[in-house]
Amino acid sequence: MAILKDQLIHNLLKEEQAPQNMIIVVEVGAVHMAFAISILVKDLADELALVDVMEDKLKGEMMNLQHGSLFLGMPKIVSGKDYNVTANSKLVIITAGAHQQEGESSLNLVQCNVNIFKFIISNIPNYKLLIVLNPVDILTYVAWKISGFPKSRVIGSGCSLDSAQFHYLMEERLGIHPLSCHRRVLGERGYSTVSVWKPTRPGMIAHACHPSTLEGRSESIS
Q1: Is the four-CA dihedral 32, 34, 35, 41 of positive or negative sign?
Q2: Which of 96, 85, 95, 94 has its CA nearest to residue 49?
Q3: How far apart are CA 88 and CA 216, in angstroms?
Q4: CATH of 18-156, one of 3.40.50.720, 2.30.300.10, 3.40.640.10, 3.90.950.10
Q5: Which Gene3D superfamilies match (predicted)?
Q6: Is 198 helix (H, G, I), strand (E, B) or coil?
Q7: How far, in Å, CA of 34 to CA of 210, rounded?
Q8: Structural domain boundaries of the chain?
Q9: In this predicted model, what pLDDT tens digit does every residue of 173-215 receive, in sequence order?
Q10: Most distant CA pair in the chain: distance in Å?
Q11: pTM value?
Q12: 174 phi and psi, to 5 degrees?
């Protein structure tokens, strides 16, 4: 079979080239897959690597992405339990850790996740980190201290998801398009966040305050 392949196909590249924009996502889960699909749709990487200790589930998710990548520019998609697959990466997204249960404070998970982070960060390349795990503020600081990276290379997701939800509510309740809404949710992610209402566009003020906007709506935005 190898001889037939060599006769039919001639490789133009003498050796496999290292990826220029490789992104790693650590842990297979709902958040992990949302990141992976978004990366592929936005064409942000020429190679995507998935890492998890659950090899069977990891292989299944990798194959799903590989089969669907035909419609998304065909980047290389690999996976593995071994952190060797993270070599040459530009960004490592960490979603792995103990997850918050309903009614549980995210602060209860800190020590458990600190131990998980120590293992993960000691095995990944010396590149940028994106932390997406609650309590994200504390764990981003922990990742920075453990890694020893410059602070500009350790990023937390912060309140970006809360801000996106806020924009959606503004569209749903007041009819303001999310791309025209530049208000933000600030503070420590969780129950301590603050919605900043100061508007940035006069058109938004006029539209939001017009009486017809709230006709027939008894809801209030909290």
Answers
A1: positive
A2: 85
A3: 56
A4: 3.40.50.720
A5: Lactate dehydrogenase/glycoside hydrolase, family 4, C-terminal, NAD(P)-binding Rossmann-like Domain
A6: coil
A7: 37
A8: 18-156, 160-213
A9: 877 777 777 778 887 777 778 888 765 454 555 455 555 554 5
A10: 77
A11: 0.75
A12: -115, -5
Give the CA distances from residue 13 to residues 9, 45, 70, in Å, rounded to whole numbers and listed in that order.
Answer: 12, 20, 22
SS3 content of the chain, % helix, strand, coil (to 5): 45, 15, 40
Contact indicator for 185, 159 with CB cutoff of 8 Å: yes
Which amino acid does the sequence have at 193?
T
Closest by alpha carbon to 100, among 133, 130, 52?
Answer: 133
Provide the H-helix boundaries in the chain.
2-8, 30-41, 55-68, 110-121, 136-147, 160-174, 202-209
Q: What is the pLDDT of residues 95-141, one digit of tens each?
A: 887 776 776 666 777 888 888 899 888 888 788 999 998 888 889 99
Q: How many other β-carbons are positioned within 10 Å of the β-carbon of residue 122?
A: 10
